[in-house]
Amino acid sequence: MLRAGTKQTLQIGDKLRERDTLETDKEATLGVILRDDTVISLGPETRISVDSFIFDPAEGRLGIATSMTKGTVAYLAGKIVKLAPESARFETPLATLGIRGTRFVAGVQD
Amino acid sequence: MRRIKISAVVFLFGILTVAGCAPKGQIVLLPDPDGHVGQVDVTSRSGSQTLTNARQETHLNRSDESPSQPGIMSEQQIEKRFGKAIAAQPTPPVHFLLYFYEDSTDLTTASEGLIPQVVAAIKDRKSVDISLVGHADATGTKEYNMTLSRNRAEAVSKIIVARGVDPKHLFITYHGKSDPLIKTPDGVAEPRNRRVEAIVR
Fold first, then answer.
1. Which residues, numbered 77 to 106 in chain A, qualify as contacts with chain B under a Cβ-Cβ cut-off of 8 Å?
2. CA distances (Å), B109 to each of A3, A77, B95, in order?
3. What is the mean pLDDT of residues B51-64?
4. What is the pLDDT along chain A (110 residues), one digit of tens a residue?
């Protein structure tokens, strides 16, 4: 994980923050659950960032933006997509995805 | 002579397909765990495509090209390219609603019966992030209900900690009467609003 310019190795149970970048090596995979029930998993040699995440349904403040730059990702949308699909974004180098209540996989070749 | 030429072309095409392997960008829509199929819009600088069917895919190789006409990807192809990412997907979170008797931090008998399932869900997932969100119905003052909803969440916390759940994995929040499941006028008693939502991730 890259947080504020510093690389660290993740252990199971570690907490993520906005703007963290996650990267797996050749042998690794990784699963992440966000507070709104979004479930994201990374295949080997994958890089993804959680650019912004706001989940405050009581105040109506919702937003999720993730971007992947290489590898393979499986994405299962959570509450933010259910409550406000227009506030969910998934970026890849060549295309932007709009998500409506769903599950998908995305691949980006270097 | 002609036949040889054709087979040479077919052979060459075969190599290109194998060596050409994955496109630079590819997106495949999958069914949700409950079987429902949603929708993904894929937009590049020069066009967009919408995926609406299970295993429908679109791809592109440059940002100045449009995403390809959607096609269906076989389960084997999906497994080959995305199998490891899919296998790494954690079990999705589960939500429980636990109800309380009026003006009380005692769980209803039915909800008490759910506690073993909550604890099992935590253990099955090896969960390290469990939210307990307390609520109250609309009888009484705002302040009173804030305290009541907090006490309810703490009551659930005590019960599951006694069953072996690590308290450092529990996150308690509470909303008093401000976030009812069933909307009622102020002052109305509503059993379904006297609750703690437990979210096991």
1. 77, 92-106
2. 46, 34, 19
3. 95
4. 999 889 999 998 899 999 999 999 999 999 999 999 999 999 999 999 999 999 988 788 999 999 999 999 999 999 999 999 999 999 999 999 999 878 999 999 97
Q: Note whether A72 contacts B85, CB cutoff 8 Å.
A: yes
**Do A32 and B179 lie within an 8 Å CB cutoff?**
no
- Determine how β-strand B39-44 pairs with β-strand B25-30: unpaired
Whether B63 and chain A come into contact, CB under 8 Å, resolves to yes
| Residue A39 identity (one-letter amino acid) | V
Q: Is A66 on the interface with B (CB under 8 A)?
A: no
Contact between A97 and B89 using a beta-carbon 8 Å cutoff: no
Using CB atoms, pick whichever of B41, B67, B85 lies closest to residue A74.
Answer: B85
Q: What is the ipTM of this complex?
A: 0.95
Supply the mean pLDDT for chain B: 91
- Positive or negative: CA dihedral B38, B71, B23, B76: positive
B90–A41: do the CB atoms touch at under 8 Å?
Answer: yes
Q: Do A32 and B90 touch (CB under 8 A)?
A: yes
Domain ranges of chain A: 2-108
Average pLDDT over residues B45-56: 96
Q: Does B80 touch chain A (CB under 8 A)?
A: no
Task: Output the CA angle B17-B85-B15, nearest 5 degrees.
Answer: 10
Q: What is the topology classification, in CATH, of domain A2-108? A: Jelly Rolls (2.60.120)
pLDDT of residue B159 exceeding 60: yes
Q: State whether residue A31 sits within 8 Å of chain B by CB.
A: yes
